[in-house]
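Students often ask why inverse folding is considered easier than folding. One informal answer: many sequences map to the same fold, so there is more than one right answer. In these notes we will look at a single instance of the problem. The structure comes first.
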């Protein structure tokens, strides 16, 4: 079951039986759980809501078999998954779940698809995967959320925010709230308001850094690098982001060498903002340069661990060397 169908059923108050909420989009997953809790009558909510963080199969079944108190049903939230024989036993019990109980398995991150309980829930289409949103889905979410904040935003401005922040909904929520406050109550959230107050995603700052070195502006590139360090960014994390960026560029360059156009290549590689940016940046490098730079950023951690260089120094050297050899510009 996808997120949209789950929220539609939630809105219609037609959820029944058992569901597993899992996946990497934690903000929406938390919202889904909170909405389920809110549907329990607040007068007797404390008596009809039970959280289980550990326990046996009997603990789960006993919680499910308990009758609701002055309400139509109760909610049992199980924040662990029984494994092995216990998982199989619980999977066998689920078809017998009383109509008066809604059972939610709530997991952080992805579920282990090898578990018997997961397989059983998959067969029944009872696993709700909270996967990261696509840029298009994130843009639609921003537009709807702006209305909830009693503001307005155009599709173009919403996509601008997604490009700046990324698709993680918790970040989008925080930055959109800041932009709405900056714009003023009931006012349109414009690109200018977003640009004035939104904190850029570290990956996007890395793109800016590479753009500067591509243009031969070493001083500007190093200014961005040192600013990120002063903001608390880890050299290891920056090296990983740069390694990923050059890996995407190498893939883009391979498509170019096969004679593919931009649209055809993006359709194959993924029509995402990072991939589009990688395609544009790959034009400034030869294939050999891309592979050399990819290895340099991959080596930053090794140089630190082996004692050959501090991570920040190794990364700075790799950044300077990543500039195409066509003379330095300021």
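Output (designed amino acids):
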């Amino acid at each position: 079951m996808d997120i949209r169908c789950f929220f539609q059923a939630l809105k219609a108050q037609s959820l029944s039986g058992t569901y597993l909420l899992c996946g990497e989009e934690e903000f929406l997953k938390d919202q889904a759980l909170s909405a389920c809790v809110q549907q329990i009558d607040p007068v007797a909510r404390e008596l009809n809501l039970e959280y289980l963080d550990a326990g046996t199969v009997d603990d789960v079944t006993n919680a499910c078999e308990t009758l609701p108190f002055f309400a139509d049903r109760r909610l049992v939230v199980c924040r662990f998954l029984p494994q092995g024989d216990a998982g199989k036993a619980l999977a066998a019990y689920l078809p017998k779940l009383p109509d008066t109980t809604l059972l939610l398995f709530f997991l952080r991150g992805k579920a282990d698809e090898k578990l018997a309980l997961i397989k059983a829930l998959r067969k029944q289409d009872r696993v709700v995967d909270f996967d990261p949103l696509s840029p298009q889905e994130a843009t639609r979410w921003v537009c709807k959320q702006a209305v909830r904040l009693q503001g307005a935003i155009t599709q173009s401005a919403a996509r601008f925010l997604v490009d700046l922040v990324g698709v993680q909904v918790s970040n989008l929520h925080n930055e959109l709230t800041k932009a709405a406050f900056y714009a003023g109550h009931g006012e349109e959230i414009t690109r200018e308001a977003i640009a004035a107050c939104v904190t850029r995603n570290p990956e996007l700052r890395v793109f800016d850094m590479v753009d500067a070195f591509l243009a031969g502006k070493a001083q500007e590139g190093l200014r961005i690098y040192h600013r990120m360090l002063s903001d608390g960014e880890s050299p290891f994390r920056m090296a990983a982001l740069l390694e990923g960026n050059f890996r995407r560029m190498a893939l883009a360059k391979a498509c170019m060498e096969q004679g593919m156009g931009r649209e055809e290549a993006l359709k194959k590689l993924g029509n995402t903002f990072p991939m589009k940016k990688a395609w544009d940046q790959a034009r400034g490098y030869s294939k050999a340069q891309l592979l050399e730079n990819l290895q340099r950023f991959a080596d930053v951690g090794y140089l630190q661990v082996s004692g050959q260089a501090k991570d920040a120094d190794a990364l700075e050297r790799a950044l300077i060397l990543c500039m195409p050899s066509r003379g330095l510009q300021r």
